[in-house]
Specification:
With about 500 residues, the chain is α+β, with helices and mostly antiparallel strands. It contains nine helices and 24 strands.
């Protein structure tokens, strides 16, 4: 029993020694020096970085962010003072011009509408390319008168012939037009009436002087003179003298003595002076009467090249003076303004189709109508401004209208929106602008731009890895988009799935 126990103890001891030795060996294999650890973590042998050749369609686009705006902005201002109406007191036209009814932002203005009121007088909107720059009244002529006459006829008030001359027919049409809107047309003021009376008195006085002069012969001879005039007021410029002197034997004692030559010359000078004074008085009266009557003051009409317009912004309120800018008007059409880098702008042409995407994913179609300085949207479109939009489909690049001299400078774009559709409520909102500048002819072989190599002789190639070896394949490049470029092999073979080198 004792011997069996001793054997068991010996076996256990040997087993323990074996386990300890095995454990020490295993531990020893896991322990490495710093040099061994560094060697085990060294970088692998350098090799090429490759990407598989793909076959797909390519579409090249220019993408930018734009803002939706109303088209053709231009400042609104009055050309002068409004009138004083038919019952104004003398000097009233010099009164301060106060807005008594302010324009309303967002309102659409049509031809014949009242934009606002100043001193209780209307400011009308009419269609015409010549801006209002003066008052229009009897005696005025020109293109601005012609477009007033045309507007009156469109509104249903016949001015007679569209001659460009402001005559009685135009004055009557203006009066009827104002009356239909609840206003009185501008009639002659008290100052005008006073001046007319003074001119008429001057004519009468000149006539009387001429009559007195011609009736005095110095020697008692009788001379009859016709001083009637041909103007509408009973005064005129036509004068004449018919002298009829009777002398006879009967009553020879009464025969006047002959006049001296000096008296005759003096009398003739007096007569000439009287006639000249009458002519001048008649001329002044005729000139004044030519402009006397119903007028359209400079501040009571604003001509717009195209109507209707939209009052986009208003910078005045009731009680303000009506001098300076009043606000901004636009057309009711929408446009999109965007900016792209100069390099991208070189790829664009007027007339290109544009896709517009709102922030909530809705899409609308537009067309590129202007680039560079031609596309700048501001109240400088005033000068226009009216024009300003490029013709759709016309050729032109950013280089033709860009304000900057470098290709990297940003270039302004203007995009028209033929049908507002989903953008109708998006004024002043941001949209994504996508302009397609090219597309591949179906699916083509494409590689990353980094795979393209150009040798010193100008040949373009890619490096293809096959079976661990690299070979150069000459290619021609086509459309590029989104970091990929179309390639066609000109020597060697290149197929979908081949590995091309893009880096080391």
């Amino acid at each position: 029993m004792s011997r069996l126990s001793s054997r068991k103890q010996l076996g256990a001891l040997v087993g323990a020694v074996v386990l300890v030795g095995a454990g020490g060996w295993i531990a020893g294999t896991q322990v490495r020096s710093p040099a061994d650890a560094a060697a085990a973590h060294s970088a692998p042998k350098a090799g090429p970085v490759t990407v598989a050749v793909q076959r797909q369609s390519l579409t090249a686009t220019v993408v930018a962010s734009g803002s939706v705006e109303f088209a053709s902005p231009r400042p609104l201002a009055l050309a002068g003072a409004v009138g004083t109406g038919a019952t104004a007191v003398a000097g009233g036209e010099g009164a301060e011009q106060r807005i008594t009814k302010a324009p309303v932002a967002g309102k659409e203005i049509k031809e014949g509408d009242v934009l606002m009121a100043v001193n209780g007088r209307p400011v009308f909107a009419l269609s015409g390319s010549v801006p209002m720059y003066r008052g229009l009244g009897p005696g005025a002529s020109g293109d601005d008168v012609k477009q007033l006459q045309s507007a009156l006829r469109r509104l249903g008030f016949d001015p007679g012939s569209i001659s460009g001359n402001y005559r009685q027919g135009t004055a009557s049409a203006v009066t009827s037009w104002y009356t239909s809107k609840g206003y009185e047309a501008q009639k002659p003021s008290a100052d005008d009436e006073q001046q007319l009376g003074q001119l008429q008195q001057a004519v009468s006085a000149a006539q009387q002087t001429l009559l007195t002069t011609t009736s005095t012969s110095g020697g008692g001879s009788e001379t009859s003179t016709d001083t009637s005039t041909g103007t509408g007021t009973g005064t005129g410029t036509g004068t004449g003298t018919d002298a009829d002197t009777d002398s006879g034997a009967e009553g020879g004692a009464d025969t006047p003595a002959p006049q001296s030559s000096t008296d005759t010359r003096i009398h003739q000078l007096q007569l000439d002076s009287a006639r000249k004074s009458l002519d001048m008085a008649n001329s002044a009266l005729s000139t004044f009467q030519a402009s006397y009557g119903t007028k359209v003051p400079a501040g009571e009409v604003v001509f717009f090249p195209k109507l209707p317009v939209r009052l986009n912004k208003v910078t005045v309120k009731t009680g303000d003076t009506a001098t300076g800018p009043i606000g901004t008007v636009t057309s009711s059409d929408l446009e999109v303004q965007a900016v792209v880098p100069g390099a991208d702008a070189e790829l664009l042409r007027k007339g290109m189709a544009v896709e517009l995407t709102t922030t909530d994913g809705k899409k609308a179609q537009g067309r590129l109508t202007a680039l560079g300085a031609d596309a700048v949207s501001s109240a400088s479109a005033t000068g226009d401004s009216e024009g300003g939009e490029g013709d759709e489909g016309s050729e032109g690049t950013a280089a033709e209208g860009a304000a900057a001299d470098t290709s990297d400078a940003p270039v302004q774009l203007r995009i028209s929106v033929p049908s507002t559709g989903v953008l109708a409520t998006e004024a002043e909102a941001a949209v994504k602008v996508t302009i397609k500048i090219g597309a591949s002819d179906g699916e083509v072989l494409v590689v990353p731009l980094a795979a393209i190599r150009t040798s010193s002789d100008g040949n373009v190639r890619v490096q293809v890895e096959r079976g661990g070896k690299l070979s150069a394949v000459q290619v021609t490049v086509g459309l590029s988009a989104a970091g990929l470029v179309e390639v066609k092999p000109t020597s060697g073979t290149l197929e979908q799935g081949d590995k091309v080198v893009v880096g080391e």
